[in-house]
Design goal:
Distance between the termini of chain A: 47 Å
Largest interface: A-B, 71 and 67 residues
Number of domains of chain A: 2
Largest sheet of chain B: none
Shape of chain B: globular
Number of helices of chain B: 10
Structural class of chain B: mainly alpha
Order of helices and strands of chain B: HHEHHHHHHHH
Radius of gyration of chain B: 21 Å
Number of strands of chain A: 26
Strand content of chain B: under 5%
Strand content of chain A: 35-45%
Structural class of chain A: alpha+beta
Number of domains of chain B: 1
Oligomer: heterodimer
Distance between the termini of chain B: 28 Å
Helix content of chain B: over 70%
Number of helices of chain A: 6
Radius of gyration of chain A: 32 Å
Chain lengths: 441, 278
Amino acid sequence: MKRTTFYLVICSIFLTIFASEGLSQAPLLREQLVYRWNAFNGKGYGGGFLPQSENTIYFMANRSNDISARKTLVYFWPITGKYMAGWKTINEEIEGTLEILKEGKIIKSLKKEDNVISYPGGYWGEEAIFYEGKEALAEHQKYKDALQAYYNALKEFYDAKMQYRKDLDQFFKEVKKRREAGEEGALDIEIPKEPKPPEGIQFYVTEPKKDYIVNLPLGRYQIRLRAKDNTIVEGSEKNIVTFTSRRTGGIGYQIVPGNKWTKQEPCNDPAKIIYGAGKNTLYFQPFIQDEYNELFYNKLQDPQNFARKEAWTWVHIKPIKDALLVFLKGNKVLSQVSYLPYLVKQIPGPELGYEVTDYDEEEAQGRKPTFEGHKLELLPQLTTAGYKVQLREKGKNIPMSASERKIRLVRKENSWLLYLISIFPLVIGAIIFIRRRKKIT
Amino acid sequence: MSQKKLSISMNTMGTLTKRELASSLRGWGIYIAAFVSFLVSSWMLNNHLNTLKENTIIITSYPLETPLSWSVIIVSLYLVFISAISISREREQGTLEVLWYGPVSSFSYLLGKYFKDIILYLMVLVFFGVYFWVVSTITNLGFTIDLAKAFLVSIFVVSCFVSFGLFISSLATRVRSSVIWLVGILLAFLALWFANSILNLLPEESLSSSLIYLRGTLSLIFTLINWISPFSYLSRGMGSIPVGNNLIYTLNIVYSIIYSVILLSLSMFILKRKGVKA
């Protein structure tokens, strides 16, 4: 037994040495056929790729996704423990027909089609719409026209700006001349008006590209690429799993702590409790959310991700901006907070911090709000339990379904007592021991 | 087994359980194990609370998960240790042989020991209840339904540990060999987990063919260990609560019961085959 343990320990040491050698080697580049896509993820579109080490692509059911087969260099990146694609070195498109099979029978043979993704609120906006075929080209043309119109307006603006500068020079010369001529009081010269820059384009449309458009109902499928010579391209046979949400229309929150606005915390499950300590300024961002299987959703984002098949995850779909956040103790309303924009300002000087201020369009000087949310102040003098927040539609007194979350304030001041109560099993043991001794004597 | 025999076995089992339980309660071991587990939990909680500063939040439905898990691990280690030496000690001292002259069978003897340890844990669970309730009152960290679910699942997890300990003890003839077997097996589980994790970190192309073979073998062994090691039942059982899936939670309880029944049956079989003499 001792010998076995000894050998196991030795083996572990050797494995660690081998492993560290493997980790320190330069990554090995391999040319591979991979699938690359833009897939709908519940709220927008995200890119992904499938290296040869994985066999299954996960898509949402009944949503259009673009996919293409490509040849690229794949290498293992030990830091993330994932395979990466060297798109910049090789990114060769593989031609052919994409066949989709269900239970061994071909149900679709796809040719490449034009497609674009349109972002009505701009690239960083909350909405993304997929267009395919002629609609895609029309949508892109619309964007190009808008872009052209913007450039034209911009050119006109620069011309007007140059004219404005000339007029301004002329204006000052005229003022100087008349003052020198002895004229006093108000001068009847028209002040040139500064031209306003044209408003930028609010929406964005990606460049049209040709891919296979995959839109499948719920189920399990196989895909493969048939080359022009009617053979199946080697390494192109993969599986597709399509899935849908288990529950929809829930309400979740993204909570932004006042002093760590980049470290946001999700609070999606109504059973979760928000624990805070001392003074807290929290910004609640409510969202409509759908619930997906954790494994399927994580694999949709990256097929190399790990997840639990038995777990479920909430995905924020759309922000709720027109509701009130109500802060209550029991059933007594303590405050009602609106959804407002906020600006994060760097604090000048050696402190190197920042502060979150209310957003004022005039003061912001063209800067957009950093984030929006319902600001809730939790003061240290509040008692510890019985608080909750809920979302209510404006003018209505009923909480929105599943929007309630409990808030508890942690007590830290008596935490040393925890050590004291650890002793109580020993006290019970001592009582039993003494009683038994008394009984014996 | 006839009804009369069964009744005798049950009576014997009851007597053995009472006798062993009284002996354990009069000793200091279980109180010290509970004390150590609470001390570790208190240290963890205290550190955790001290990191909570202004404008810091924690969002959880089960804030006492880690302290409870560590408490269960410590008490389980104590119980697996005492069950691992219980049979071999009586075999070594000759008590087992004396008992076998009476109406004691391997069935009543093993179940007596098993239920003694389970009842002992149920008593510790009362301590846990009191401790975590007081913790919740002092710190305001919620005594939630998930904590109650963790209490329940921990009984079945501990049942796995006790059965595992009794199985080891039935194999050994001396206390020393029981301890060596137990520590050796637990260390082997740990070493395999470690080796498997390291090899899985590496891409296949950077491994030599012998290491690829080793990885495949280790992975297979590790899958097997996932059903043999009581620690896997602990990790699965406690881990099923935050997932919030009742089916998985119930399945973990069922798996733990099956594991305990199999190991207890094997222990009875081994005890019969090996006999009562050291």
